[in-house]
């Protein structure tokens, strides 16, 4: 193989090429190092910049100290607020207790007049206390009721349509009531038992409005859970009372604590009989009074004038005589309390019910 001078040059170049590349890399690297050094020199912090940085650090330290002081102050203020709030709550409790004292004293007074309750039902909706009463001419029962909720009392009809009737015990069981008592009077026609005169259930007139006549009155509850009653010649008069429910009968016994005139017919026909009365106290508690009688012939039970005297002694404000005789029915905690003169409960078109 003949090696020419040209080939020798090519081989030499190939042989020294790596070394040339290495030298170039070193040169370039050295240049880069010089650039970095120059850059670092240019980046050297100047005195003015150092002073500004120190001033910033001083400001941050002051801000930190201020934050600590503010935090301590807030903590102290929160502590004072909690203490003040606790003291105010305690003052409110004491004030509330003091405000409730007159009512508690009044409740104790009217309860003592009835005697010792034989049974009590108490819930968020109501408190019902049952009392047994022994008077000279009759045995009676009283239920004092404190309504705590708008739905603690209602009036149940005897069925789905006017003319239907059921016993008070049936109404109590059907609607899940705790206490039940017979309500307004009735009239029989063609095998049906219709509520007497103006009757309202669920805010609606059952058979329309009828102006009061022959000593008839309307009694029921309004939208504020207050007993309302009286004689009404116009529907607008009764509507202004905002009645939720109620029924009609005769006569009114007490108005504002004063005995009302008893119609001659009701003084003697019958003279004595089983009776049912609904009344209220000045703190809006209710009183249900039921008197037993062996018959409706006028020889047993209570007279209406006796009931007026007894009710005044109990301290009620207004009192209304409800349907009596064999209609008088009192159910307490699912049990029939009184002794119906018919020997059994009578089916009626209206019932006042109380719920726990």
UniProtKB/TrEMBL annotation:
Domain Phosphodiester glycosidase: 176-355
UniProt entry keywords in alphabetical sequence: Coiled coil, Glycosidase, Hydrolase, Membrane, Transmembrane, Transmembrane helix
GO molecular function: hydrolase activity, acting on glycosyl bonds
Residues passing through the membrane, by range: 12-33
InterPro entries noted in UniProt: NAGPA (IPR018711)
Superkingdom field: Bacteria
Coiled coil: 50-77
Protein name: Phosphodiester glycosidase family protein
